[in-house]
Amino acid sequence: MLSYICLNWALLVLFTGSTVSELVVIGEVGQDVTVPCHYSVRSRNAITSMCWGRDRCPNSKCSRPIIWTDGWRVTEQHSSRYQLKGDLQSGDVSLTIVNAREADSGIYCCRVELPGWFNDQLINQKVVVKKARISTASPHTYTSEQTSAPGSTSDSSSAVTRTWPSASASEAPQTASTPCSGPSDCLDVAANLQNTSVSLPSQQHPERGLYIGIGSCAALLLILILALFLT
């Protein structure tokens, strides 16, 4: 009976193995992705070896190993993109994937080799590396700046065009000193000057008529007075 119980216990431990936990880590392409893994270090004697592998944790060691450490330093490294940047002597054996790629997505096994049978600490980490999002805020800002410049130019030109109709014909002599852009412009300026010079005497006719009327009345009045004296 006792041997039967021991055999069942041995088979249970053999097939179940150590407790395995699983987490999910999400990163972006081109960024460094850190896959966490820690174990407890209460004394220097508790520092132990461990490995990282590209697959689920097997019954022993790591399948497709990518990095190993004896607890003090890295003893084996599959690629320089896989690094252990944590404090190994304090139990920080987190894996850093430098310049992550989409091909780095998958299951990673962190296996800490603890003394004793079936005592290894096993952690399966699922890593998902996604493409980085492209922001469109900068192109929209750049476009708005480009379109605002022509708008300001059109406003200034329209303001200039609105000032031309406000000029009257009487101001033509003041602008005649400016250079002519062509023969037709010079003829127009000369015609305006002639019309102005001709119109000036015509404006004095009312005053002359007034003076002539007053003189005529005075002459008639003088003739009437002389006629009275004569009679």
From TrEMBL:
Residues 139-181 are annotated as: Disordered. Residues 147-163 have a biased composition (Low complexity). It is found in: Membrane. Coiled coil: none annotated. Residues 30-135 form the Ig-like domain. Gene3D superfamilies: Immunoglobulins. The keyword Transmembrane applies. GO terms for biological process: apoptotic cell clearance; cytoskeletal rearrangement involved in phagocytosis, engulfment. Keywords: Disulfide bond, Glycoprotein, Immunoglobulin domain, Membrane, Signal, Transmembrane, Transmembrane helix. InterPro entries: Ig-like_dom, Ig-like_dom_sf, Ig-like_fold, Ig_sub, Ig_V-set. Residues 164-181 have a biased composition (Polar residues). GO terms for molecular function: phosphatidylserine binding. GO terms for cellular component: membrane. Residues 1-21 form the signal peptide. SUPFAM superfamilies: Immunoglobulin. The chain crosses the membrane at residues 209-230. It is a single-pass type I membrane protein. Its main location: membrane. Belongs to the immunoglobulin superfamily. TIM family. This is HAVR1 protein. It comes from Cettia cetti. The gene is Havcr1.
